[in-house]
Amino acid sequence: MNELRITDTNSSNDSKGRALGFEGNDFLYVVVGIVAAIGVFLMLYAVFAVSLLTSAVISALLAIGPTLWVLLFRNNRPDGYAEDFFDDLFNREGFTYAPNSQPSFPFHADTTK
Predict the structure, then answer these.
(1) Where does the pLDDT of residue 43 fall: very low under 50, low under 70, confident under 90, or very high at 90 and above?
(2) Which residues fall within 8 angstroms of residue 98, CB to CB, at 6 or more apart?
């Protein structure tokens, strides 16, 4: 018997790909952060003669920032997670019915009469 087998596959349009352990183009944030940190370190230390420790700390912050952004808000998260997170953080209920923020009335409508 030659029956056609149909199975679910991970086709190319379902997957965004992986690079450096990150899905899609998330690795670009990390790579750009590292390149920017190296550039700022060289500018501060070689051109502006800032101390080695100060240059290293400032450039490390530039490398750590995008890496934390990707790890906390993009890696293994659904699309729009960061926007929803910050929207919920600052707006809370937003434009939905929010019973906790509605004014309370000292009386209730008595419908039993």
Answers:
(1) very high
(2) 92
